[in-house]
Amino acid sequence: MRAETLSSMERYSVQKVIGEGSFGRALFVWCKSSQEKYVVKEVQLPKRHSELENSRREAILLSRMKHPNIVAFREAFEADDSLCIVMEYCSGGDLLQRIQQQKAEQFCVDDILRWFAEMCAAALHIHDRRVLHRDLKSKLLQYH
Fold this sequence. Notes:
It contains three helices and seven strands, in the order βββαβββααβ. The chain is of the alpha+beta class. The protein folds into two domains: 1-89, 2-Layer Sandwich (Phosphorylase Kinase, domain 1); 90-144, no CATH class. Strands 1-2-3-5-4 form a five-stranded antiparallel sheet, covered by helices on one side. A hairpin with a 5-residue loop joins strand 2 (24-31) and strand 3. The protein starts with 11 loop residues before the first strand and ends with a strand.
């Protein structure tokens, strides 16, 4: 990622913080030019050069993951000591939110099997590209 080809957070209007963790934070944003909704994942850039290059490589890797069951990558750029990864917005939330909304009512078996098949298809897609996802959890599984 070279500086002259990168865009910036100025292209987006931050609406709210939708997640925070040890990685950084996730922001719900609007693209100012298109009015489309996105999520920007802000990750603090490491100080060590080798770790910095690993973060940049991870963003490039994400940009190559094109699959209907993987949240789509839009762009990545660096701003204020952070790596900003712009991803599609999944209005349905994540699997953890869906579980919490369901409360005491059981899920339909067909839904569970479909979600499991979608997760497996996404994992197969990244594994076929010799990438290992080390942190697969219900909070990462998104709904459109």
